[in-house]
Amino acid sequence: MSGRKSSILALFLLCEAIGAIALVGNAYDWTRSFENITIDWRFALRYSVRKPMGKVHVSDQVVLAGIDQLSVDPKHSNYSDRWGAGGWFTRENWNQAIAPLALEFQPKVFAYDILLTAHRTASSTTNSIDDFVGRKKTKLSLAVLGNDFPRTELLNLLDQGSNGSFANNVETLSESKEGGLTELDLLTAITLNFSETEQGHAWSLPEDEGRIKRLVRRAIPSSSLEHVPKDMPLADNALLPFDPLPAGPISMAYINVPRDPDGVVRRVPLVMAFRNPLDRDAPVFLPSMALKACMLKFDIDPASPQPGTGIHVDFGKEIVLTAKDQTFHIPIDRRGSLALNFEGNFEDFTQLTYVDLLDYKGFLSQEKKLSNTPLNQAGLEIARKIRDKIRGKIVLAGLTFTGGSDIGPCPMDPNMPLVFIHMTAIDNILRQSFFWSMNTFETALYISALMIGMWLLNAFTSPRFSVHAEVWLLIATQIVPLVLACFRPLYVPMVLPGFSVMFAFGAIYLYRYNTEQQERLAIRKKFSTAVSPRVLRFMEEHPEQLVGQRMEATMFFSDVAGFTSFSEKLDPVQLSQVLNDYLTPMADLILARDGYLNKFAGDGIMAVWGVPDKQPDHATQACLCALEQQAKVDEIRLYFHNKYSVELKVRMGLNSGIVSAGMMGSAARQDYTVMGDAVNLAARLEPAAKDYGIRTLIGQNTYELAKAEIVARPMDRLVVTGKTEPVQIYELMAARTKAKPEHFRLAETFDHAIQLYWKRDWTAAMKEFEEILREFPKDSASFVFVQRIQEFLTKPPPDSWKGEYVRTSKH
To answer: What's the mean pLDDT in 13-32?
Structure first.
């Protein structure tokens, strides 16, 4: 197998290996925490983009009756009071709302996202009694506050009275519904607990048999379940509403809102399993509040289904709700959870203050009997608006006041009332608007396609093109999913593809660097001996000069453009011949100008003038040698094209300055070389020449030292990698003794144009550069500045800009 084919195969195997490693890692969710963060970004970005456009949509069939700031402000109305006190404590605020909800305001479903549990005898609740009666300055209240008063007995009596009243209202509501007087369904909350105890009380038989049966009665039939995972988490007990409510005709559903490992709520389980103590081998599956609310709205009752209605749960695929006139398909994961599509924020949902239901009850039922006073008419109008807002809809009662305990982080807000989670789930179901994600197979195809793309770019395109294409590919893996999320609720992974592309990029270029270095080492070994004798002779004559000293010198770097690309097209023998044919005349010209041929680096040459022996005209000699080398390249270009099918182009960079010169290396081998900022700048100028489409760049110091003997034009104020201050750079055009009139004319007009450019006179500078291009249409540098000016006309540089161009790459 040829070297070229081996390289292509190695790159292919490398890319696919990285893709396989990424997919194996993904199977263990190693990117999940990072991906979750990007999901939050997408929701926030989508909302910020779509909200100003008026394109945020949520279902108008979901309404929040919030226990908000007004509901807990005793000054707002007769029904408002501090949470845990007044009507909230006695449950009168819940009891008195049932009748007007059923007969006046007429929602289809009213769900309590609040645990209506027994008060029990906790000290905190006993303190609530003290607070409740303490505000009534009567003999009775003073007696209750006495140390000998049986608070627990009073608490139990209050529980019995309020709980019995609520249960009676539920029974009455059920009878009214059977009689066709109302369509209202009440839905109360439970929580499933994944521990053996519930508030310190372990469930046991036969004491809790009745409570267990009440849960089983409200379960989804096992015949409606399919592909139940064997590792489905099972709750051990549940916190139910106060007795005798669970025994009555009220619907119940859990309100558990599990969080992701980082504490953020992004999904809600629509179905959860409960370990049945009566039959441990037959777990009970219960619906969430969101799912149950939708079932009630469309009269879907699994226990006694009407013809053409029902529920089917296929774990890992979907829940299907079949109503009389429509079907809802709800995607779920293998454990029954729905990934929430947060299209709207909290304030986008229809809302009302809970106590308004109490403040304006009776207006509609007594409409014909109301006296025609402004106050009554205003109340009647508000009552009508409330009815219009909630009639036939799903209404959730939840805590939204500041300081409420029922809050948690979600992608839209770190302190969101958790009733928003249930509202969002209902909204997603009703609008059939879901956050779709790529499955494992689709993700595998995506990663494989990216890796194949990386392989194709590196195997069949030039290194320069492949680098740029791979950078854009990496950017695309991050930008496209963000943009897509603004217009489609589709989750495309960002972290895994991004890591895959970056790892592949690094591995490929480590591989390429390694193979290229092997070639360069072989070339360097052959040519380094050509300069060592000169250094050795100088050591014998002037050993003190080699200890190490600071000297002024001019450094020269050159490199063949596209070396890696065309070297891969040649076999080793041809490659050796190409480099020999190129490097030999270049080395001869350097030595002829008294330059020190420091080293070859593959196709690259580093030479120095002014060391180890001093040369007063080192800058001039270096510049003239560079011009002679470019002339030689022009001379042999046709020969290289005809013999090797190689388009020979060479870039050069020169700079002068103070350097540290001396013998450097290991104890076994040392070479005389130079180090310093001036050296680094010369090395940076060589690749920078391609930015302007020119062949040779020189630094400011070199220009000042050699300007009497050369023709050069100012090219830019360049900030190289690792530096913050710009340096003036010039294009080396010709020796003065050999320059043509057009060299002087181009240098002069370009100088005038770039001065206007540095003064931010874009219009005048543009005109000058365009004039240059009319006379010198192949002048790439002028074209570069025309493009820059066009960009600055639309996006000007900051006021602090002084003409500098920041180069971010070393190559």
So the answer is: 60
Q: How far apart are CA 680 and CA 557, in angstroms?
A: 10
CA 128, CA 187: separation in Å to the nearest integer?
27
CA dihedral 631, 633, 637, 639 (to 10 degrees): 100
* Secondary structure of residue 673 in the 3-state scheme: strand
Rounded CA separation 582/570 (Å): 15
CA-wise closest residue to 330 among 316, 342, 344: 316
d(CA 741, CA 608) in angstroms, rounded, equals: 31
Q: How confident is the model at residue 152 (pLDDT cuts 50, 70, 90)?
A: low
In the numeric block, which tokens belong to residue 175?
């009878």
Say how many CA atoms lie within 13 Å of 445 toward its Cβ: 6
CB within 8 A of 537, min separation 6: which ones?
none
**What's the sign of the alpha-carbon dihedral 435, 440, 445, 448?**
positive
HSE-up of residue 285 (Cα within 13 Å, Cβ side): 23
Q: Indicate if the pLDDT at residue 532 is higher than 80.
A: no
Q: How many angstroms separate the CA atoms of 505 and 446, rounded?
A: 17
CB 582, CB 640: distance < 8 Å: yes
**Cβ neighbour number for residue 506 with a 10 Å cutoff:** 11
- C-alpha pair distances (Å), 395 with each of 103, 298, 327, 423, 625: 15, 14, 22, 9, 86
Angle subtended at Cα 452 by Cα 448 and Cα 455, rounded to the nearest 5 degrees: 140
Structure tokens at 669: 């081998």
Rounded to 5 degrees, φ, ψ at 263 are 90, 0
Q: What are phi and psi of 636, to 5 degrees?
A: -95, 0
pLDDT tens-digit map of 640-686: 888 888 888 999 999 999 998 876 776 666 677 889 999 999 999 99
The rounded distance, in Å, linking the Cα atoms of 531 and 517 is 21
CA distances from 292 to 252, 335, 505, 622 (A): 8, 17, 50, 85
Q: Which residues contact 29 (CB under 8 A, 6 or more apart)?
A: none
- 542-547, Cβ contacts within 8 angstroms, sequence gap of 24 or more: 542/612, 542/613, 545/612, 545/613, 546/612, 546/662, 546/663, 546/672, 547/662, 547/663
pTM above 0.70, yes or no: no
**What is the pLDDT at residue 149?**
47
